Amino acid sequence: MALVLYRQHEGPRPDITAMNRRVLSGDLLPPARELEPRETAGEHTAEPIKSLKDIARISQYLIKQGRYRDNMLFILGINFGLRVSDLCHLRFCDLLDEIAGGYVFKRSFAILEQKTKNTRKVQRNRHITINAAVVNAVELYLRHNKKTPRLDDFLFVSESNRANGALSRVSVDRILKGIGTDLDLPYKMATHTLRKTFAYHQMAMADNDPRMLLLLQKIFGHSSVSMTLDYIGITKDEIAQAYLGLNLGIMNGLPLLDSHLELGEAS
Considering the domain boundaries, does residue 36 fall inside one? Predict the structure, then answer.
């Protein structure tokens, strides 16, 4: 008896997602008499921006709108991976060194994150490297800003605060949600979107290398790698793909779906 399982389908593969979104006739199923919503736990309020094209769209949109501060906030947020509370309290002197006749960007700077300062017994700085995207965004802001800031000013100054106070967390949340609405982005936009985008693309750039996952766990101070995966949003994607890719029992010739037994003499 020869046992043959999981015969691969030959030919083009059907679009699984499209098949799941088929429209059924109302004649097949009467409407509910009384529909009670199923109880579910609350979902995360922020998602990473997973598309590089969407990241480019956001930056281009803000620049075209003349919102150079908001573009700088967005670019630094997704490249530094800091909590918004720490991001908003960065100053120009954190990024720039004064030299004769001007300033030069530092290669990196150290920061003691406020949340970890209050929760960890051993105090450790986080070292942030300044990349070209950050340099470009800061220089673009300085060249177009009508009011010349001082070296000790906050990077992100509240426009409603005459004392040059730092942008608030509430303001950042409003800015991000507004961007999401204006561009009709398919993400839940909130303050953690910036930090999660940083982590998501670090993993994507590293081709999901486990060493990068461990590095991100250390950067974020998470107690486990599963917490880091859940924070980034990769786990949810992979679970969805696991369901979509299985399709046991379907009769459309998808891989793993044309399984059968062939009975005969054993060779």
Answer: no
